[in-house]
Amino acid sequence: MEVKLAFVGFGNVARAFARMLESRRAMLDSRYSIQIRVKGIATARHGSIITPTEINLLEAVDLVERDQSLVSIHGASECADSLDLIECCDANIIFETSPLDPTEGEPAISHIRRALARPVSVVTANKGPVAFAYRELNELAKQNGVHFRFEGTVMDGAPIFNLAEFCLPGVRVTGFSGVLNSTTNFMLTRMEEGASFEESLADARTLGITESNSDYDIDGWDAAVKTAALANVLMNADARPNEVRRQGIRGVTVQKLKAASQLSQAIRLTSRAEMIGSALKLSVAPEPVALTSPMGAARGTSNVLVLNTDLMGDVAIFETDPGVEQTAYALLSDLLTICASLRNG
Amino acid sequence: MEVKLAFVGFGNVARAFARMLESRRAMLDSRYSIQIRVKGIATARHGSIITPTEINLLEAVDLVERDQSLVSIHGASECADSLDLIECCDANIIFETSPLDPTEGEPAISHIRRALARPVSVVTANKGPVAFAYRELNELAKQNGVHFRFEGTVMDGAPIFNLAEFCLPGVRVTGFSGVLNSTTNFMLTRMEEGASFEESLADARTLGITESNSDYDIDGWDAAVKTAALANVLMNADARPNEVRRQGIRGVTVQKLKAASQLSQAIRLTSRAEMIGSALKLSVAPEPVALTSPMGAARGTSNVLVLNTDLMGDVAIFETDPGVEQTAYALLSDLLTICASLRNG
């Protein structure tokens, strides 16, 4: 089974995925009979290329990491931009990881809409499209008989969407709570240990885990976008991030954390969905949680999601100290899920 | 899609599943186009029956709960025993939940072997067959083109085996640790709160969570059987429970728990698999864990399993205070998984 891929966006996540693909070529062939061919790569600053043959992925990674243009790659033709590449590339699956405007989900939504309309399957690690346009994009994919997958958008490669889709058949998700933003959780953990807000933020920046604008983490926007994405997919909502009642961590002081600790509690920036009567209430806010609980167990950059269900009670999934490798794995996981589906017809 | 079921064993779990099936008939039809027909029920003390038509499941539940024989059910013929029913019933899937001899996995293994050989698909909530005969039974099912599923054998309906099979494609499980026995965990939590060993055991008995022989919980046998089952399925081992190095909780005192607590630790009866060089080491033993960690978060009857993987780091799944409903859901989940596979050909 030959699978032709294209990349829209070739940043840290896409390049980690590219390396993972290259290092797993033999496994993909022997275990899944999948042969990968890369047919196009679009970047914002290093050119966009397609080829009728195959792009050497490690050569492309190397060029971008040496800040050089991709257009020097042998046999490649240059495209005008991402949308041009999406229109022209000879791919079965496009991997969308372009830099995101978190307030409206663009340009990822336009990229994905264009790809699904061609139709070509899409895998994305961008949460914006799932938070701002899930219903439309999912319908478009279905109508056109292609796939739209996005496991990496919440909790990196930890299976959240796949868990609900493949492992909880017959179950209705009635609500959820989770710790989904690593930056604020890392900061709260540092502050529990006595660091100030400013020191904690500086440490998070040093670790490279903050969004380019750290207000986006601190004021709960990132968590709100993820909350909307989860509600849209897991609870069939049609919510937008600005409908999530949102409170960030600026009001959480070292004193409050100490007081919570004396009650065997911690404070977590909690993403929550609950049905109040027939209305779905979505919120992001600092909440006290028992230290010895799944939510309390998420320290530092770790994440957790607790699903409330009708038939299976509460099930939580927990990811320990994720990094870019875990997000890269999410893309691989989506690739393999699509290939399994193609194989089953 | 008509699916014909038979029950071998009709105890608490099977009857909870029967009630769940009845209450979800409309959902099964509308969402999955599945119509259920029950064709046979084998019990140890209330007779074994088959029918060419359909057994009224709620009538059967009611008869057994009033301690009456099933042979009075209209249109049913009596079978000699479980194996006779397995041989004669007109079923696509047999649900095996017979009372288990935990030291050798019988009679469940014989039941399943006979069913798969017919061939008829099998769903079981009995961990013995997976711990003692997984490789043989799995091969037999594959050779005969039928299914052998067992999600309920470890952590009830929390998706463990399905998570690894459907949600972590391309991943190798390199080890695991978990809190898998509710009785001992409940006892350790009660002892943390100051109760004695004997009081804690009495409380567990009152709650109805102990095995019929509570030594089987306390001395780590139940956890060892689950450890072997997990290793066999998730790590392609061919282990037996007696190969699991095993230490129960008799040596854990209130004093030791208090000392651990002062270090922000708890003691959990930990099931563990790790590769030491090329050798797989399996163990069950009381181990100190950080209170604020996935393992520490499993208090009372809650369970947790942490999977160590090559591509996805550590992923943990957590089940809060499971009951018989969660095990019943595991059977429903396996039923739906088999139906999805049948539908895909």
Describe it for me?
Two copies of one chain form a homodimer. Chain A has 345 residues and is α/β, with parallel strands linked by helices. Chain A has helices spanning 12-23, 25-32, 57-65, 82-88, 108-117, 127-144, 161-167, 182-192, 197-207, 215-218, 221-234, 254-262, 294-297, 324-343; strands at 2-8, 35-42, 48-50, 77-78, 93-96, 121-124, 148-149, 173-179, 245-246, 265-276, 279-290, 303-309, 314-319. In chain A, strands 4-3-2-1-5-6-7 form a seven-stranded mixed β-sheet, with helices on both faces. A six-stranded mixed β-sheet of chain A has the order 9-11-10-8-12-13. The first copy, chain A, starts with a strand and ends with a helix. The model of chain A has no long low-confidence stretch (mean pLDDT 95). The interface between A and B is large, with 49 and 49 residues.
In short:
Two copies of one chain form a homodimer. The first copy, chain A, is built from 14 helices and 13 strands. The first copy, chain A, has helices at residues 12-23, 25-32, 57-65, 82-88, 108-117, 127-144, 161-167, 182-192, 197-207, 215-218, 221-234, 254-262, 294-297, 324-343, and strands spanning 2-8, 35-42, 48-50, 77-78, 93-96, 121-124, 148-149, 173-179, 245-246, 265-276, 279-290, 303-309, 314-319.
